[in-house]
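ESCALATION

Customer reports they have been waiting on this structure for their group meeting. Please prioritize. Original submission:
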Amino acid sequence: MTLVLSALQRMPLPQGSNVAILGGAGGGSVTMTDSAEREGLKVPRLSPETIRALEAFIPLEGSSLKNPLDILPALASKENLMKLFTLLRDDPNVDALIFNMPIHFLVKGMGRAAANKFLQLTTQAQQILEKPMLVVIEGARTVESEIIRQEAEDWYHEAGMATFPTFELAARVMHKLNEYRDYLVSI
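Update from on-call: job pushed to the front of the queue and completed.
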């Protein structure tokens, strides 16, 4: 219940149950899609216009332009990240975004400064999205990783964004927000 209230305070209600999923790779994306659908969400194919536009700047090798989107390495540039969020904003098949933020891998692979810059970019991109964005920052295995996870969570909360410790909880909260929107429409 606390996570639902936190989400209500930090983001607009979704206009439907169609979610785009960003993050993960291969099997992780399949698991996230299954979890979303178990929670009553839909993971639709992106519109043909969105897919064509993505193909123009996302290398196809090692990426998936279908929903879920396995394109994180291509989003290291501000320009690409902003293009993606603009496309998701304009895609009629997308009501919200669930973003699996791989903060541990970013810090390990790019360093803390680069990971912090990516946090800044995602908060800017979220403003472009104009749709609910649920950020998943999964638990850590080490004390250092937990400190980094908590800092990322604090960063997003200060930016007015909702975060979740697991993808399953994010999907469940998204479903509850849809139920609440349906209730408001019915009264």
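Sent to customer with the following note: The chain is about 55% helix and 10% strand.
Escalation resolved.
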